[in-house]
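Input (structure):
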């Protein structure tokens, strides 16, 4: 009978040694993945603090229209640009979630304008998972559930994915705290 010897990596040895310190036991394990999303989750977990402000999300959906013929300007590519606040959610895994306001080029492909009837529900995970759902009058368009895609984290702060014939991009910005008068 052969026995194999499994040697720990240097990182594992350091991590095990750190378990003996009180700071290592109290800190949650880091979430691997997109650093900007991870930092925004931690930032959002300090509501009401004078040092931390809200987290803003920016999300684009660009549906390409392929045609061998010239395209009527009202049938051009559809672009949704969604912005708004997101908050940290801890289950099932830590992520950011929110419902964003939408501006789109529907009706006028040459200009992107706000559309009060449209919203975009989003969930952003540091591992690159993006979940989104288009809403019309606060109801899922066509009764469709949230769509889940795997994104690539670009430069540790921007999530980008391809979903069928559309390109999705999501980013976040940690906002400065606002002073509230007493």
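Output (sequence):
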């Amino acid at each position: 009978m052969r026995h194999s010897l499994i040697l720990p990596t240097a990182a594992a040895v350091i991590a095990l040694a750190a378990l003996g310190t009180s700071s290592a036991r109290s800190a949650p394990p880091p979430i691997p993945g997109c650093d900007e999303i991870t930092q925004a989750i931690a930032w959002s977990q300090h509501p009401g603090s004078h040092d931390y402000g809200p987290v803003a999300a920016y999300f684009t959906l660009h549906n390409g229209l392929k045609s061998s013929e010239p395209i009527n300007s009202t049938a051009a590519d559809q672009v949704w640009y969604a912005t708004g606040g997101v908050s940290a959610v801890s289950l099932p895994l830590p992520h950011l979630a929110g419902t964003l306001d939408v501006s789109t080029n529907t009706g006028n492909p040459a200009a992107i304008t706000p559309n009060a009837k449209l919203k975009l529900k989003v969930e952003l995970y540091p591992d690159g998972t993006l979940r989104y759902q288009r809403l019309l009058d606060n109801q899922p368009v066509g009764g469709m559930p949230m769509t889940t895609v795997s994104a690539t984290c670009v430069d540790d702060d921007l999530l980008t994915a391809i979903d069928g014939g559309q390109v999705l991009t999501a980013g976040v910005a940690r906002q400065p705290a606002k002073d509230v008068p007493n």
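Notes: The two ends are 75 Å apart (CA to CA). Confidence is low (pLDDT under 50) at residues 1-31.
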